[in-house]
Amino acid sequence: MRAFDIYLNQEDHTKKLVQTGYNEIASVYDTYWTEYMSYLSEDMLKRLKPPKGGNCLDLTCGTGFVTQKLSEITSGNVTGVDASEQMIAVAQKKYDDTCRFLHDDAYHFLKNQPSNSYNCITCGWGLGYLPPRILHEISRTLCHHGKIGIIDNIVLSNWEFVLFFLVALSEEPSALISYIKPKFYISTGTLVQRMRMNGFKIIDSWKGEKIFRFDRKETAMEQLIKSGVAAGIIQMIDENHTDKIIKRTGELLQRYHSLKGYIPVTHRYIGAVGEKK
Ligand SMILES: C[S@@+](CC[C@H](N)C(=O)[O-])C[C@H]1O[C@@H](n2cnc3c(N)ncnc32)[C@H](O)[C@@H]1O
Asked: Which of 33, 82, 102, 181 to mutate for ligand 1's pocket (most ligand atoms within 8 Å of CB)?
């Protein structure tokens, strides 16, 4: 009832809560995410084969891994855009000599760009935070035959964590103070269909999962939080209850997986690369 009440009577603060979430973990994001997941972003870039030179844009660039790789591959003018000041600050510190980084909302930034102005646009692990109409703006701002590369978590990527977080929250309903409405895709098929609707020819599409195994619930929860999986989700609860709810979520996860002898944390993802027709 409380969740329903908040949903009906509060504004949508998704952008702000996600931004706060990533600001809080920016200094450890590379250790907990980039270190283990960046090979999947590199795989996306290999399938994409970005054109040499020209203008490239990396939306939701975070700490800049994909942005820098784009710069290495294309030797073009590469810009990274991200809504988190802290994530952008890390990217700037690492790659300021090769790429340009801007702190902005990706949709707002793209909406103000001229049509047919980019040769390649990527979005690594952030499309689900953006409105679906971003694909229309990507299509508009790409040149004829311009390329698009996407890799992202699916909506049910870490469903076990989300489910047990909600169970823990239901035991402490007063902790809920806000809600988020992410727009992650449900499958490769839905992403591909959206891309086609926005004028893209699909070059390749795929899906996969990456499983981490943890002996202890504390380290499983640490991975989920510091890698950004819980960004925006943790911010839905009152700070005074955060530790208790995280602890309880860990207990429930461990109990659910008790027969396995370890706690799996599974990232389920999709990718697609295409060309503007
Ligand atoms: C999982 S991280 C991905 C970072 C990077 N692309 C990578 O491959 O590691 C998601 C990023 O999306 C950014 N983000 C979320 N909402 C955004 C928005 N509305 N506009 C721009 N960036 C956004 C976050 O700040 C965060 O840096």
From this structure: 82
Report which secondary-structure segment, H or E, holds 236: none
Q: Are 251 and 166 in contact (CB under 8 A)?
A: no
Q: pTM higher than 0.85, yes or no? A: yes
Residue 179: its pLDDT value, please? 93
For the Cβ of 205 lying below 6 angstroms from any atom of ligand 1, the answer is no
Hey, where are the domains in the chain? Answer: 2-276
| pLDDT tens digit sequence for 89-130 | 999 999 999 999 999 999 999 999 999 999 999 999 999 999
Instruction: Note the pLDDT tens digit of each residue in 124-134.
Output: 999 999 999 99
Q: Which CATH superfamily is domain 2-276 in?
A: Vaccinia Virus protein VP39 (3.40.50.150)
Q: Looking at the DSSP assignment, which residues form a beta bridge with residue 4?
A: none
Contact 147, 74 (CB under 8 A): no
Residue 161 Cα to ligand 1 midpoint, Å, equals 20
Q: Is the pLDDT of residue 4 over 90?
A: no
Ligand 1 centroid – CA 19 distance (Å): 8
* Spatial separation of the C-alpha atoms in residues 20 and 18, rounded to whole Å: 5
Q: Is the CB of 41 under 6 A from ligand 1?
A: yes
